[in-house]
Amino acid sequence: MLNYIIRRLVFLIPVLLGVTLIAFSLMHLIPGDPARSMLGEKATEEQLEALREELGLNDPLAVQYGRYLGQVVTGDLGKSVKSDISVAEELANRLPATFELTLFAMGVAIFVGVLAGVIAAVKQYSWFDNISMTGALFGVSMPIFWLGLMMIWLFSVKLGWLPPSGRLSHEIELTTITNLYLLDSILTWNWEAFWDSFKHLLMPGLALGTIPMAIIARMTRSSMLEVMRQDYIRTANAKGLSRFPVIFQHALKNAFLPVLTVIGLQFGYLLGGAVLTETIFSWPGVGRYVYLSILGRDYPVVQSTILVIAAIFVIVNLITDILYKYFDPRISYD
Amino acid sequence: MSAEINPTGHPKAGTTKVKASSLWLDSLSRLLRSKTSVIGLFIILTLVVTAIFAPYFATHDPIEQDLLNRYAAPSSEHWLGTDGLGRDIYSRIVYGTRISIQIGVIAVGISMVVGVLLGIIAGYFGRWIDNVIMRIIDILMAFPSILLAIALVAVLGPSLTNAMIAVGIVGVPHFARIVRSTVLSIKETEYIEAARASGVRNGEILFRHILPNSMAPIIVQATLSIGTAILDAAGLSFLGLGAQPPKPEWGAMLSDAQEALQTAPWAITFPGLAILIVVLGFNLFGDGLRDALDPRLKQ
């Protein structure tokens, strides 16, 4: 197992190198002069030259890439051209917000998706199966930015139940430890902050989780249906085991492997989808940061943020592969 | 279609009439038996007909402004109300079907042509060519798709064409992987071996023998990708990185209407519903097509 993990980590190196190459190329693919593109038409020649020098754009490409790689390896992700703040610092502040949102969205998606998929499979062709799978079909076709806006209209504008934007109301005070507000409010025993941050998290989390929820539900159902036809399930039923352990201990554990693959892949979708969700709900995470940087043509920020998100995605996929072993001990890693 | 079969080959032996069928006819009949795929097909046909006859269906010019009638509620004059510049939302949605089809065809066309070419070359030639191509595919797949599309448009500049190119590039890895795995199994079959032994050139084997036999998964992937491409391109336009004003693109319409969320919810409701219905149509049809072309996958 350890050998497998080490081998996979070694295989990650060329992929991550490729990712850095693409992220690096982004800035050099800009048609025309990147400095002009960042500073706009009104910039003077001196300002442009200063920026070119600062970004090292006057050096040969290979030298620039080598320097960029050296910086990335040492954790230096560059500075924002607009604010002069270090990208690593900004990301450290914003990543917890995005993590909180994606973890919440994924948690809801897995809980509801797996449960709906299992019930739909056990009660195949029942009204629950029909309704949940029709819902799942709508879910996978849903433009989440539209769903988000409709949620704001209904729950914030019309009913006034939930706040339309942000992570925490201004009047609420919270001592941050991890910057994951839900967790911090539990750690500091601050239930007012917990309830407030939960209300802020609910709409963006549900909007972001809709598509993964639908995909997980469909995959769980089809995988469960296949497993439930196997002989060992028939044997478990025949020897009189009650329905609950047969479904959840025997069937679901074996049906979970393809679901796990989908969960791993959906995590990447969530990181990408966070750009849209965070923009709609003014969620101060990495997605909104990268979006605002694109609008502001702050390419060093775009470059580094995309690199970090891709690296997280690759690592999550690795963790998914490792988790396979738990769900299917027959898998050999040799 | 039927054919006379003489099992013994003897001229005087009795013949039996059997029904001849093909993969495509069988699949078509399976496809049309599925209610959900027929609904999907109906939605797609409606979209195509609306796009072709948009000037006949539309009640107003989609870009004509009427500033005295900003955010007018749905009425007999404006069936789905008007937007922030007084433009008729119904007519803009009708004309928007043309853009959706354009996005679906062009973006998925790019993914398909490049992906199929890479997949077929990687699968057929194997060895280092396969290794190089598949590592590039792995790297492309290391990026969450919408984020890669956003990054590409950020570089290329915001426009509908660039959004379609970006969404097309993002879809390449899916086609490449599917085609590669299909080619890997087909190239080991006897008829390919026979073609190779009889001196048929690689190009001919690839495009006359292997490609036509790999079409089923490519068609399924293309149909399912159209829905995703429309969603992604609408997302890009929503962020201001796709279609630019005054194009009646549905994602851009949603983006424009955000400011009036409290006062004119219709300006947001209908373009979003249009996206949902069209993507649903392609997903329903794609699901049905997959089940019809490969019944083993049907659960």
Automatic annotation (TrEMBL), chain A:
GO cellular component: a single term: plasma membrane
Membrane association type: Multi-pass membrane protein
Top-level lineage group: Bacteria
Domain ABC transmembrane type-1: 95-320
One of the GO biological process terms: transmembrane transport
Alphabetical list of Pfam families matching this protein: BPD_transp_1, BPD_transp_1_N
Gene3D superfamilies in alphabetical order: MetI-like (1.10.3720.10)
InterPro entries on file: BPD_transp_1_N (IPR045621), MetI-like (IPR000515), MetI-like_sf (IPR035906)
The protein's name in its UniProt record: Peptide/nickel transport system permease protein
Protein species of origin: Melghiribacillus thermohalophilus
From TrEMBL, chain B:
Superkingdom per UniProt: Bacteria
Domain ABC transmembrane type-1, first and last residues per copy: 97-286
Localization annotation: Cell membrane
Record's bilayer topology term: Multi-pass membrane protein
Keyword Transmembrane applies: yes
GO annotation (BP), single: transmembrane transport
Keyword Cell inner membrane annotated: no
Record's keyword terms, sorted: Cell membrane, Membrane, Transmembrane, Transmembrane helix, Transport
Homology family: Belongs to the binding-protein-dependent transport system permease family. OppBC subfamily.
Record's protein name: Peptide/nickel transport system permease protein
Lineage: Bacteria, Bacillati, Bacillota, Bacilli, Bacillales
